[in-house]
Structure formats: C-alpha cells, structure tokens
Backbone:
C-alpha cells in the first residue's frame, strides 16, 4: 500500500459519511454524507495506488473518461426522472461480475480478466454512482429526503461506522482498505439510495420479476454447463476438483458453485413465497421451481441445499395452517436427525470431522484462535485470514484461512463490540421485515425469505455482509415501509411509520 495514513483518514471520513447518509432527515446532512462517501472512496483509491489521474492525460485515457462521463450523465438523468427505477436496476446488476477489472496500467483503465477469473461488481458500482448523483441532484433542486426507519438505520450506521474505524488498528491494512473500497462504502451508498427511492404499487412486482428472471438465467446457464462440461468462470481449485471427481460442479455466471447456488436459492425463495401467498399460479410457479431446482442440483452446494430447506420450512411455517405447521416441525426434526445420523456414520467409517465439513472445522478452529487473542475489538476489517495464518504458523496461501462463517469473521475482525452491532443489525432487519409483512404479506415474506437464505448460507460460506443482495433486501424493506401508502389518507393524517416497527 502506497499511503496507509491516507487510507485510515479516508476510513474515518467514510465512517462519518455513513452515519450522515443513513441517519439523514434533512437535505444538508444527506448531501454531506454522500459527499463524504465519495471523497473517502477517492482517498482509498489513492492509498491503494489505483489513482487514474496520470492515465487521463493520454488521448485514449481522456477519450475513455469522456465516454464514461457521458454514459454516467445519461444514466443519472434517467434516474432523476424515474427515481423508482433505482431498486430495479440495483437488483438487476447486483449479482453480476463481468470479467473486466480496473487496471491502472492500461491506457483505457480497464482490462479483461483471464484464466476463468471474474472482475469486480462494476455494473453495480456504475448504477450506484448514477443513483447517488441522481439523489444528490434531486436534493439540491429542493426534494426533501425521506428518513430511513430507525429500526434499521441506527444499527446499520453503527455497524458500518465501527467497521470502518477498525482500519485504524487493522493487522492487514491493505486487505481492509480493499474491503472498504469495494464493498463497505458502496453498500452504504446502496442502502442510502435504495431506501429513499419511491415505491409505487408496480415496484414489488417488478422486483419479483427481476429476481425470478435472474434465477432462470443462472439456472439455464448452469444446466448448459452441466451438459457440456464447459465453465465460463471458475476458481483454480474447482478446475482441479472437476477433473478428479465423478461429478461436475457448475458455476453459471459465478466463479464458485456455492455463490451460484446462493443466488438460485434467493430466486427459489421468492417463487415459494408467491406460490404460498397465491400471487403466482401453480401452472407457472411449479415449472419455475423445477428449472431452478435442476440448476441448483448441479452446483452440489451443501450450504445452498441447507439454506433452501430452511427457507422452504420457514415459508410453510409462516403461511400454513395448524396442520402444515405441525408437519414442518416434524420435517425439521427428521432433517436434523438425518444429518446427525449421516455425520455419525461417516465418522464411524473413518472420515474426520474436518473432511466431513469440507475443511470448515479447521477454518473455524483457526478463526476462534484469533478471537481468543483479540476478543474486544478484533484484528480490524479484512484481517481475519492473515491473522489465522500467522497464528497457525503455516505457509499455505492466506485465502485458505478464510473462516467461511460470518459471525466468526465478525468476531475475529471487529471483536465483541462488532458482534453486538452485528446482532443489533440482524434484529433490526428482522423487525423491519416483520413490519413490512404486516403491510403486505407477500412483499415482507419474500424479503424475509431472502434475508433468511443469506444468513443461513453465510453460516458455512462467506458473504452475508459482502453480498450486495443483503443490503438490497434491507434497502427495499426500509423504502417500502417509509413510502406513504394510498390507504393511509392525506399526509397530515398519516401515523408515524416508526410506530409500525414497535413491539
């Protein structure tokens, strides 16, 4: 890292910007928060050595910059005129990681990734930049911003702020700065803009259609890969695994079968909710489930299968009658007993617990060792893999030490304080989605199913906090809850929306 001090100052500015952007209820505080987020992002780019200023002086770099600004201006103008499109385009671009990456050594500042690698979330970053610019422009022109429901705004602001400040004591400063630049700060902007978009009556249907369309696209590509044994993107270890096993794991548009499986589970959860609430006819919904389930099958992702089972049982429990609820309890008990029996049989057969959990047990042990050494405030954002490797005195690559368990990663990186804020965020998110469910059962249950799927999946695979869909779910829930409904009467007679989330 070229300028570590700049990275730490930028993180502090980002922490303040996060609090202002998420808690703002007036024009000045929102504009100040968004501006601080942009400045912090620029400071981190400078600290990481990715500043493009020298390349912009070349003819090709200048032309690329002008073209990019022109496209950004057009996208911003569209979102200024149609702000309700913000949640739709954010959801549509959130999972996509085209094989294009920022490359300061290139004359046009980007290059194509090779060897099966994927790039960053560039489509999402572009949409977020346009959304931030559109919100800023509308606010400058006199539009009064809506406040986010405090039930989620307060824990989110506190969690983001503390995570950003942890860069001051981070063991792996460069990893932390990268995590902040490419995930934390963009997701603050995502939550702040998606939650403040208008939520007309047509928007929930549009979001459901986008979610299902993405699931069908991913599943269709996964099935094609299963038939042809050709992958678009893959990690090197997957290539080796597929060459040495009897089954072929597919990745669709992702670099890892488990990430592919996670996004199929999200779409499957939406379809299950729509079927259970009679918002989708079985003659349409059942074929959708069949196609996406077939695509999920060839991921061979155990974490995704478990997440789908939990979501299916939760949807049945929430929407079924007493008989259905009893059946859910029985099915859950049978599933637990079956898993326990299978694990016991495998252990008796000679497999180790670490083999049974696909190396998860060793990763958990290495992460808990970090927690024991740094219990209060952790080793700083992004520092868990390097700290685990150092305590294990191993020469294996650092990525082999990623915990793949979000609560443990939080505890290792931002300590007991961070775990408390993380739990506050989970509880706040659950209360927010429960309040949405009281307003519209299908919308709230679909968001709740997605939130639950992400949480369960991240218990055995990384990504709850680093997946943009988590923040899309919370942003849509916050926006839907704070947007005035037609049946509430004139604005002066509407009850405070905060009352909807009180016990």
Residues:
């Amino acid at each position: 890292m070229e300028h570590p001090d700049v990275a730490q100052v930028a993180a502090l500015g980002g922490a303040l910007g996060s609090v202002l952007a998420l808690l703002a209820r007036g024009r000045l505080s929102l504009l100040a928060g968004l501006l601080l987020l942009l400045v912090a992002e620029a400071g981190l780019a400078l600290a990481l050595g990715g500043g493009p200023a020298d390349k912009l002086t070349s003819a090709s770099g200048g032309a690329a910059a002008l073209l990019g600004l022109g496209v950004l201006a057009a996208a911003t103008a569209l979102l200024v005129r149609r702000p309700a499109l913000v949640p739709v385009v954010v959801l549509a671009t959130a999972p996509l990681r085209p094989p294009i990456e920022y490359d300061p050594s290139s004359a046009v500042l980007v290059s194509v990734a090779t060897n099966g690698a994927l790039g960053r979330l560039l489509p999402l970053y572009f949409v977020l930049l346009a959304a931030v610019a559109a919100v800023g422009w509308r606010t400058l022109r006199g539009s009064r911003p809506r406040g986010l429901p405090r039930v989620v705004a307060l824990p989110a602001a506190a969690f983001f702020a503390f995570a950003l400040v942890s860069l001051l004591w981070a063991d792996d400063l460069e990893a932390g700065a990268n995590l902040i630049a490419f995930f934390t700060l963009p997701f603050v902007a995502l939550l702040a803009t998606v939650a403040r978009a208008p939520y007309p009556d047509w928007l929930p249907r549009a979001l459901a259609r986008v979610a299902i369309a993405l699931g069908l696209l991913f599943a269709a590509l996964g099935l094609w890969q299963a038939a042809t044994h050709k992958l678009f993107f893959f990690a090197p270890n997957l290539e080796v695994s597929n060459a040495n096993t009897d089954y072929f794991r597919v990745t669709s548009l992702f670099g890892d079968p488990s990430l592919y499986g996670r996004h199929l589970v999200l779409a499957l959860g939406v379809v299950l909710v729509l079927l259970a609430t009679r918002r989708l006819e079985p003659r349409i919904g059942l074929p959708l489930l069949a196609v996406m389930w077939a695509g999920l099958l060839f991921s061979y992702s155990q974490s995704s299968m478990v997440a789908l089972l939990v979501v299916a049982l939760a949807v049945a429990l929430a929407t079924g009658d007493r008989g259905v609820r009893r059946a859910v309890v029985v099915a859950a008990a049978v599933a637990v007993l079956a898993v326990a029996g299978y694990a016991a049989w495998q252990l008796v057969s000679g497999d180790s617990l670490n083999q049974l959990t696909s190396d998860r047990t060793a990763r958990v042990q290495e992460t808990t060792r970090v927690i024991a050494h740094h219990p209060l405030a952790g080793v700083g954002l992004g520092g868990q893999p390097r700290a685990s490797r150092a305590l294990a005195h191993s020469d294996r690559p650092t990525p082999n030490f990623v915990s793949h368990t979000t609560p443990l990663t939080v505890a290792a990186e931002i300590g007991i304080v961070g775990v408390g804020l993380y739990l506050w965020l989970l509880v706040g998110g659950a209360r927010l989605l429960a309040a949405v469910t009281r307003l519209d059962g299908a919308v709230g249950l679909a968001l709740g199913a997605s939130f639950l799927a992400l949480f369960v999946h991240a218990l055995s695979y990384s990504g709850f906090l680093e997946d943009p869909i988590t923040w899309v779910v919370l942003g849509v829930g916050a926006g839907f809850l704070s947007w005035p409904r037609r049946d509430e009467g004139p604005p002066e007679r509407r009850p405070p929306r905060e009352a909807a989330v009180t016990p």
